[in-house]
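Here is a tokenized protein:
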Amino acid sequence: MSYLRDNGIITEKQYVGKTLDEATKYAEDGGFVVRVVEVDGHSKMLTMEVKSNRINFRVKGGYITAAYGG
């Protein structure tokens, strides 16, 4: 298993308010995989598997409004 920042614990405040590019770089540098689940109120089609190394982002106007694991 690869290294995950903070032992894989995702704290939303680390991401909310960052641009998608900033948040993605920060997440990937911490060993996470990023998935955008919603853009400007429009949900994306997703697969149902859960991954412990993935962070899901909701984006509005290019900025992260929510971040959570799975």
About this structure: The helical segments are 20-29. The radius of gyration is 11 Å. The chain has a mean pLDDT of 95.
